[in-house]
Amino acid sequence: MKLDSKIPSGPIEKKWDKHRFELKLVNPANKRKYKVLVVGTGLAGASAAASLAELGYNVEAFCVQDSARRAHSIAAQGGINAAKNYPNDGDSIWRLFYDTVKGGDFRAREANVYRLAQVANNIIDQCVAQGVPFAREYGGTLSNRSFGGAQVSRTFYARGQTGQQLLLGAYSALIRQVGAGAVKMFPRREMLDLVVIDGHARGIICRNLETGATERYWGDAVLLCTGGYGNVFNLSTNANSCNVTAAWRAYKRGAAFANPCFTQIHPTCIPVAGEHQSKLTLMSESLRNDGRVWVPKKKGDARKASDIPEDERDYYLERKYPSFGNLVPRDIASRAAKQMIDDGRGALGGLSVFLDFSDAIKRLGKDKIAEKYGNLFDMYHHITDEDPYSVPMRIYPASHYAMGGLWVDYDLMTTIPGLFCLGEANFSDHGANRLGASALMQGLADGYFVIPSTVGGYLAGTKLGKVDAGHKAFIDIEAEVSSRTKKLLGVKGKRTPQDLHRALGKIMWNDVGMGRNAKGLTHAISKIPQLREEFWGTVAVTGSGEEFNQTLERAGRVADFLEFGELLAKDALAREESCGGHFREEHQTADGEAQRDDAKFMHVAAWEYKGEGREPERHAEPLTFENVHVAQRNYA
Ligand SMILES: Cc1cc2nc3c(=O)[nH]c(=O)nc-3n(C[C@H](O)[C@H](O)[C@H](O)COP(=O)(O)OP(=O)(O)OC[C@H]3O[C@@H](n4cnc5c(N)ncnc54)[C@H](O)[C@@H]3O)c2cc1C
Questions:
Q1: Crossing angle (nearest 10°) for helices 518-538 and 472-491
Q2: pLDDT-based confidence at 285, cuts 50/70/90?
Q3: Inter-residue contact 162 to 73 (CB < 8 Å)
Q4: Which of 260, 256, 253 is nearest to 233 (CA)?
Q5: Each residue of 76-103: b (16+ CB within 10 Å) or e?
């Protein structure tokens, strides 16, 4: 497998313009002769489908929910970054680029990140033009707040519902094209395989989730915009439907999987309450603008927050990182919380730390705090039955985001020609750690601004033979998909898919979670195949394949997580360094910070599938830094 990132030559500021100029164009009259399949209609997919249709391509778009509006993107709370520098606090495209490369612990491609920072400003203009109701200052200008890993305020937001508002914008653009006949929307379709013909991605096989029918769809290019795999940990802040299936199927057809061990554990989530909990709830990072994180100074101190005097509290982020304080990046904040709890200093003597707004409420007043974070406070109150206006929130880290994903080149094309990957599903621009408010930025940059140019370049520069869904490859792959469904239904065991997912989640969290070491990883790598065997011997899938059957859907996704989890653990074992969210306990500084090994690991690891029962092959794409000085990250 050859990894050619196709990074354009020339100065970093000019690469994207130069590349767009050099990419071949499809004549406007010819665009309608092409059909592009867009799988997933969250922010990345909806923006891509709408933009391509607007350009004149025929688009078919697919999602597992009943409406594109229900994609997981709708849950995004805190905001979206862009270097508009409205607050005049020293921001610039260069600073956003620099912060993102540094925040990712120097494990992302410079050229991609620079382009992301460049087009971010266009996203804000695009969304404002669509009517996205970003928060505004009294005088009418758009408001900005701070997020972790930055010392400027560059996050645009719509209270704690930014994802919802951005998705409604992208959805409106998409539905306009559905109305115009340029996009055919296929909701409740789950892509279960990719069809590759003569080395090019030419279609997908889906299950119609309402009728159970398997369906074939052909196209001239396929875009995977299917989101992240954080649910491999079972408990995560992701929606229950988030999965790795489409990306995993593509991997098995030849798309390299990059940096699967780069997962993000978010520091501010509502702690786990019980064994049968199915999901965790995020408390947006924006809360760290005004909330102060602390634990008792004394070990085993189980007193209520109000009983602990000020001088017996340790505001450990402010103490350890005075420059960034509570706004250190997520990996740093999560690890610090773990250290406090491992040290026996958790809030109320348990598995959480305090996030305290009492100072901010005193300073700004309750109304101001409610105006900024009201819906988040209400959510916390409903879930915990504790009122965060009067007692500090209790928070704990949880699986939240996937920096790893399908490997893509500068054009966002995977190692399968004609298969593109956008949004959280690709290995993206965030390196080993994503900064807050940068996922929405990346998904919309990919969909609105990058892919419209690069898909055109591919189509104009590639001679594709005629295919349709009657091609033998479609028939063969459809048969494979159907037999797998039959196999799942045929086990007739006693354990629910949820139960097996929970068992996988425990292995992943304990051995491949916030702190990783060779012993734990080796344990996970031996345990996961055993659990996989148990799955295929004991899973209970009730109902039939010819109907709406969410147990069957879940079982298929868990089966894929059971394969993918092993690759994630192998990637973590192979990466003998700590960087960003990947913390190998053997590799840490005297202060407990991540210790990179640039000489050996300054690369993207891209895994190639070699067939059932065979070891995958690890390839490396070296990373070079010509514009950013590589250093040990320092937020002190
Ligand atoms: C609680 C929460 C809050 C967040 N807040 C922020 C924030 O404030 N700022 C920020 O920048 N980021 C935030 N993030 C991250 C951000 O929301 C996501 O990274 C981003 O929305 C992902 O968008 P996407 O389009 O790539 O994927 P998604 O929105 O997950 O969409 C995936 C799409 O793929 C479809 N799909 C999946 N599998 C298949 C399949 N097999 N076949 C067919 N369709 C399929 C789904 O139906 C869906 O349409 C947050 C994440 C969480 C969990």
A1: 90
A2: confident
A3: no
A4: 260
A5: bbbbbbbbbbbbeeebebbbbbbbbbbb
**Which of these is catalytic: 107, 207, 330, 557?**
330
Our mutation pick for probing the ligand 1 site, out of 43, 147, 226, 249, counting the most ligand atoms within 8 A of Cβ, is 226
Rounded to whole angstroms, the maximal C-alpha distance in the chain is 74
Q: Phi, psi (5° rounding) for residue 257?
A: -105, 120
> For residues 194 and 406, what is the distance between their CA atoms, to the nearest angstrom?
14
Q: Does ligand 1 lie within 6 Å of residue 76's CB atom?
A: yes
Give residues with Cβ within 8 angstroms of 469, minimum separation 6: 203, 216, 217, 218
Cα 279 to Cα 301: distance, rounded to the nearest angstrom: 28
Enter the DSSP assignment of 447: I
The whole-number average pLDDT for the span 385-394 is 96
Cβ(191) – ligand 1 distance below 6 Å: yes
Q: Which residue lies with its CA nearest to atom 51 of ligand 1?
A: 76
Please give the single-letter amino acid code of residue 276: H
What spacing in Å lies between the alpha carbon of 50 and ligand 1's midpoint? 17
* pLDDT above 90 (res 635): no
**Is the pLDDT at 636 greater than 90, yes or no?**
no
Rounded mean pLDDT of 476-505? Answer: 98
C-alpha distances in Å from residue 508, one per residue of 268, 495, 514: 20, 19, 10
- What would the mean pLDDT of 49-64 be, rounded to a whole number? 98
Q: Answer whether 559's CB lies under 8 Å from 535's CB.
A: yes
The atom of ligand 1 lying closest to the CA of 206 is 42
Ligand 1 center from residue 225 Cα (angstroms): 9
The DSSP line for 389-446 is TTS-EEEEEEEEEES-EE---TTSB-SSTTEEE-GGGB--S-TTSPPTT-HHHHHHII
Does the Cβ of 573 fall within 6 Å of ligand 1?
no
Inform me whether the pLDDT recorded for 550 exceeds 90.
yes
330 is catalytic: yes
User: What's the per-residue H, E or C state across 13-80?
Assistant: CCHHHHHHHHCCCCCHHHHCCCEEEEECCCHHHHHHHHHHHHHCCEEEEECCCCCHHHCHHHHCCCCE
Rg (CA), the chain: 24
Q: How far is the CA of 132 from the centre of ligand 1 (A)?
A: 18
Dist CA 412 CA 423 (whole Å): 10
Report the nearest atom of ligand 1 relative to the CA of 249.
41
Is the distance from the beta carbon of residue 226 to the nearest atom of ligand 1 less than 6 Å?
yes
> Residue 426 has which token pair?
């690709």
The verdict on the CB of residue 50 being under 6 Å from ligand 1 is no
Handedness of CA 133, 138, 143, 148 (dihedral sign): negative
